[in-house]
Every structure is written in C-alpha cells, then in structure tokens.
Write a structure and sequence with these properties.
304 residues; globular; mainly alpha
Length: 304
C-alpha cells in the first residue's frame, strides 16, 4: 500500500507534499478570513514585495535540503544540520540586530558539540554533500529570521505570512508537478475511490498545515533562534526515545554521550530563555505599577 501512495522519486514526493501543504494552507486560511476568524490584508500588487524573499528562501531550502539528504549519511547530515542554530544566531544579530548573553551562546555551542560527538564514529567527507547541506543551513536560518521579521509587517501578521507565502509558491510548484507528470499521476490515482485513503490523505493535509502553522506561531511568540533550537531538541528527544523504543538503535558511547550533551544544551537554552523572559516581564509589570503606564521596550532586544 505504501508503495502505491509514495512516488519512487524523492523529488516528486517532495513536490507532492509541498502542493498538499500549500493548497491546504490557502483553503483553510481563506475560509477563516471569509468568516472573520483571522485577519490579514487583501491581495494587491504590493503584497509580493512585502513578503519577499520568503517564497524564494522556501524553495531554495527545499531543493538544497533534498540534495543534501541524497548525498550524505544520516550521522553526517545530523551534525551539519545543527550548524543551522549557529547560523540563525548570526543572522538574527546581522538582520534583526539582536544581542545574546554568553550563557545562551554557550548552550548553543553545547548542542552543536553534542551533535559532533554523537556522529564522530561515522563521519565521511563529501564536497558536494557538504556544499548542499551548508547552503541548506544558510537558507533555513535566513528563512527563519525573515519569517520572524515579516510577521511584524503591517497588514500581514502570522496568518498573512502563511497565506501569501503559500499562494505565491503553489503556482510554480503545481507547474513543476505537471511538468514531471506527478500531477497527472495524483489525479488519476486509483485509490481516490477508497474511503480509507481519502481520510488518510485529508489528515495528512491537515497535519501538514498544522506543522507550518506551529512553526510560524513559535516564531511569532519567540525568536527564530528559539524555533530552530526547539526543532533540534525535538530530534534529539526522538533519538533518545528510540534507544528504549523500537529496538533498532545500535548503542555506542560516543552516540549516547553526544545525544546527552545535545539534550543538556537544549534544556539549558530553554531554562535561560524562560528565566530571561520571566525576569523582563516582571520588571515591565513593576514599571507599569509604579508609573501607571507601560514603557516602550529598549531598542536592542535580548533573544527569547
């Protein structure tokens, strides 16, 4: 059954997943907007420039991510993908002019160091693979930072960013799908008459939308760096759970130690971010009580 549902070519599969996510995002948010459940500005010629360069970064991120996956082993890919965290920190400092306390920087370094230790027994060098994965890191970091910046753009917000990014991307994605023949295969797929397949398909569309929405929502309430770290810690958590569940984990001290360092760095980052945010909110509340009004936030914000 699985072979019937997934194209043999991973590039076609990626296109198929992107089309599903984009179309679902457009439909859900459009219906919500028509029913006054969400609010973002109507489409006009200036919307493209407002959201630029997010659509280009999204496409570049997908292409380089797929290429790096095909060229590198999983351990090596895991190590190099962790550098997205460092690059996100650099991009936030350069684009958003954010500053970071040393303790937060040390926790990020611990996450990257843990990934290197975890995969140290199974590293291989591939110039093309390294190039693609490092480019993927750059595009992922830049996409995260610009998503955070565009969410604050007047008239867009988190829903506008999701909707118009999907609306702009879905057209070239559909054209690529039609060009490769994947669209024709999807339309003529024989299992459309099966209720179980339709239910699973709709659920996968909804979950794809929820994934995209969760990422944007996390970036809305936190920083791009926090969103990236959360993703990395989630992967580490899954790997640690896999030690006890599944039965296919091959234990090695290097891997176990590296995963533990990664998780420790992630927990330290979470604690430092939470304590900093709580402290700042307490200070702001005290100032409001003393003066009777809320003061404007300082120009330079600490990452949270």
């Amino acid at each position: 059954m699985r072979d019937r549902l997934v194209p043999s070519n991973s590039f076609l599969f990626k296109i198929q997943e992107s089309v599903k996510q984009m179309l679902t995002t457009i439909v859900v948010l459009y219906v919500a907007k028509m029913n006054n459940k969400v609010n973002f500005e109507d489409f006009h010629g200036g919307v493209f420039w407002k959201i630029f360069p997010l659509p280009l970064l999204y496409v570049a991120n997908h292409i380089t991510g797929l290429a790096s996956t095909q060229k590198l082993s999983l351990p090596m890919l895991t190590v190099l993908r962790k550098f997205t965290i460092v690059m996100t920190m650099i991009m936030e400092g350069y684009i958003l002019r954010k500053t970071f306390p040393r303790s937060l920087v040390y926790s990020v370094v611990a996450i990257v160091l843990g990934a290197v230790v975890a995969a140290s027994s199974d590293l291989a060098f591939d110039v093309e693979g390294y190039t693609f994965v490092l480019l993927n890191d750059v595009f992922t970091a830049t996409n995260g930072v610009y998503t955070k910046m565009k969410i604050g753009t007047e008239g867009l917000g988190k829903y506008g960013v999701l909707f118009y990014n999907a609306l702009i991307i879905v057209v070239p994605t559909l054209l690529a799908s039609a060009f490769t023949g994947d669209l024709h295969e999807a339309v003529t797929f024989e299992a459309w008459a099966e209720a179980s397949f339709v239910i699973c398909f709709l659920l996968s569309c909804i979950m794809g939308f929820m994934l995209m929405y969760s990422i944007v929502l996390c970036s809305h309430y936190n920083s791009a760096l926090t969103t990236t770290v959360v993703g990395a810690v989630k992967n580490v958590g899954v790997a640690l759970i896999g030690i006890f569940v599944g039965g296919d984990y091959l234990f090695s001290w290097n891997n176990f130690l590296g995963l533990s360092i990664c998780l420790s760095g992630g927990l330290a980052y979470s604690y430092l971010t939470f304590s900093t945010t709580t402290s700042r909110r307490t200070t702001e509340t005290s100032q409001e009580l003393n003066t009777g009004f809320a003061e404007d936030p300082p120009f330079k914000a600490t990452a949270h």
